[in-house]
Design brief:
Blueprint lengths: L2 E2 L2 H21 L5 E7 L3 H17 L2 E7 L5 H13 L5 E4 L9 H7 L11 H8 L8 H12 L8 E5 L6 H10 L3 E5 L6 H6 L3 E4 L17 E4 L3 E2 L5 E2 L4 H4 L5 E2 L7 H18 L1
Parallel strand pairs: 1-11, 2-3, 2-4, 5-6, 5-7, 7-8, 8-11
Antiparallel strand pairs: 9-10
Helix pairs in contact: 1-10, 2-10, 6-7, 6-10
Bound molecules: nicotinamide-adenine-dinucleotide (NAD).
Length: 280
């Protein structure tokens, strides 16, 4: 049976480290503040936004909440971002995605000052990651690196297969694993012989967005398996992109869903907020 990589415990460790750093900044008279913008009231987005605000409260980060109407225009949203970019008391700006269809998501991401881009989605942040410069890193992949390191998984020189090439998970994940000196293969929906490619992985990171897609037949004996997916199954229970039951019998270590990658995303957002002070 594989070692279970406990994302809940590791995320709590990271949040507690952030809490200590925030307390130290407060002693120097420095407060940290995150502006959270939500457009419309998509229920899933509201849950994410609330969890982010709760994490801020736990750590001692002030959060400014902007709940905008669904009909908010792109210009109105851009104006708010511009105002927040200019405010010295605001360290991080987060626009909860997706935004309603009449707003150009890329224009919004580009409008955020890269020094306040705590989600790490701005092209400048992504470019900095690509060429090894300082900048914010997308929270989910950054959290996966922390999970691996804090579970003592060796990355250097290992064969890593990332399934998925999205801008928020797959691509930055591949760049981060490359930065950690893994030999990286990125697989996606057009990849041929996916099973054979996955079978070569020492570390398999799965971000496909399809429930229980990866079963034991894709996994090499002793591989480390990271499951990024989040879904609700027919019984309304959470499950991942990996079939935990079969894969945990062949892997040496695996992240569960829930309690694996999920809690790390918010912890890394908090870490980005605290780190923002260093970039500003
Ligand atoms: P996405 O839909 O943007 O990307 C999915 C990727 O999987 C695509 O690049 C596609 O090429 C690839 N893919 C699809 N079908 C495939 C197939 N049959 N074979 C190989 N590759 C295939 O999704 P995303 O935003 O990257 O998210 C992936 C999953 O992770 C989703 O379940 C999402 O809910 C979850 N997620 C979790 C967190 C978290 O905090 N835990 C954060 C972001 C996303």
């Amino acid at each position: 049976m594989a070692q279970i990589i406990d994302g809940k415990m590791i995320s709590t460790m990271i949040k507690d480290e952030c809490k200590e750093r925030v307390a130290a900044y407060k002693e120097q008279g420095k407060e940290i503040c995150l502006a959270v913008i939500q457009v419309g009231n998509d229920p899933a987005s509201s849950v994410y936004v609330n969890n982010k605000k709760k994490a801020c409260a736990y750590i001692g980060i002030e959060s400014l909440s902007y709940e905008l109407e669904e009909e908010t225009t792109q210009d109105e949203l851009l104006k708010l971002i511009e105002e927040l970019n200019g405010r010295k008391d605001v360290n991080g700006i987060l626009v909860q995605l997706p935004v309603p269809g009449h707003i150009d998501e890329n224009a919004i991401i580009r409008a955020i000052d890269p020094k306040k881009d705590v989600d790490g989605f701005h092209p400048q942040s992504v470019g900095a990651l690509c060429i090894g410069q300082p900048g914010f890193v997308s929270c989910t992949p950054a959290g996966i690196i922390e999970l691996l390191k804090r579970s003592n998984v060796d990355i250097c020189g290992k064969n890593c297969v990332v399934i998925g090439r999205s801008n928020i998970v797959g691509k930055p994940m591949a760049l981060l694993m490359l930065r950690e000196n893994a030999t990286v293969t990125v697989a996606h929906s057009k990849t041929q012989d996916l099973r054979e490619i996955c079978k070569r992985a020492d570390i398999l990171i799965v971000a496909i967005g399809k429930p229980k897609f990866i079963d034991a037949s894709y996994v090499k004996e002793g591989a480390v398996v990271i499951d990024v997916g989040i879904h609700r199954n027919e019984n309304n229970k959470l499950c991942g992109d990996v079939d935990f039951e079969s894969v945990s019998k062949v892997a040496s270590a695996i992240t569960p869903v829930p309690g694996g990658v999920g809690p790390m995303t918010i912890a890394m957002l908090m870490k980005n907020c605290v780190d923002s002070v260093l970039l500003q």
